[in-house]
Amino acid sequence: MDYVFLLRKILVALCDVFRWRDRKQGMTLVMTIQAKNEEDVLEQNIRFHKAMGVDGFIITDNDSTDGTGRIIEKYKRKGWVWESILEKGKDHRQKIWVDRMIWLAKTKFGADWIIDADADEFWYTPSGNLKEVLAKASANVLTCRSISMYPEEGKPLEEWDKAVRVIDRPEDYGLSRYPVFVGQIPKVAHKAKGYIQISSGNHKVIMFPKRKRSCPDIWIYHYNIRGKGQFMRKMVDGGKALALNPSKHGGRHWRYFYGLHQQGLLEAEYDKVVGKNCYGRLVDEGLIYEDGRMAAFFRSLNREA
Predict the structure, then answer these.
(1) pLDDT category, 23, cuts 50, 70, 90?
(2) Which residue among 16, 66, 81, 300 is least crowded, i.e. fewest CB within 10 A of its CB?
(3) Are 56 and 82 in contact (CB under 8 A)?
């Protein structure tokens, strides 16, 4: 850990206390994104969040080998991506990489609020404007819940209209230990003033002072599984990266699936991850259900384009 940099962040957070009443015209909302081989979802992510009120993006490309870099450059030329970082590291030091982007958002771009997202996360509010919701917040940290989308291979991602509910005992359905139906820890959006450190996975943040509230008006549509090929690549790449990471915390599902990959069992596990073995039952019990809000938003976005 860079203790000198940490001390600097603490001192800046302390100074921020005396600037709480500073006001400027409007609010600047910055989104940080960490991406690795996300060409199938990154462009939709950027377009969606720009329409939702994000002013600019800071993106770390973790040495992608697909078209992720080209998408970043396209939207950098367009003026939407304010900063891009090519990270060659192979050891998934996510907390360090996201912290670096947050610090840029705060000190270089004057962000008021920051949302730290993965490329497969879409932060949605029914009002269609994230900044309106954040401007009304009395807290400086908002926790937001996730909804997992059900993978519909063969359909464009923008047309997916099925989501899933959490299953507390997946073994009762013959599902994987970590299926798409598993509950997810809420993520946080936070102010720039008072920021000290983000946690791994963007689930928690250290602020001074810290005033945290849950936010029922923002939730995250998560497209974490987008087909068998993408699932297998992500679990293998993630498992390899975590094996090189000196920290042994986090990424339990990646470690589990990487272990299956090493045994040659990962491909067979996929059907139990998405519930193909009991799809009819899951639909009948309302555990896979229709949710067309994202598809409708994308249709309106495409019409405007």
Answers:
(1) low
(2) 300
(3) yes
User: How confident is the model over 149-193, as pLDDT tens digits?
Assistant: 999 988 999 999 999 999 999 999 999 999 999 999 999 999 999
Write out the two tokens for 247.
């920290």
For residue 81, the tally of other CB atoms under 10 A from its CB is 19
Read out DSSP for 195-262? EEEEPGGGS-EEESS--EEEEEEEEEEE-----HHHHHHHHHHHHHHHHH-S---S-HHHHHHHHHHH
Is residue 85 within 8 A of residue 180, CB to CB? The reply is no
With vertex at residue 59, the alpha carbon angle to CA 194 and CA 186, rounded to the nearest 5 degrees, is: 55
Domains in the chain (CATH in brackets) are: 3-225+290-304 (3.90.550)
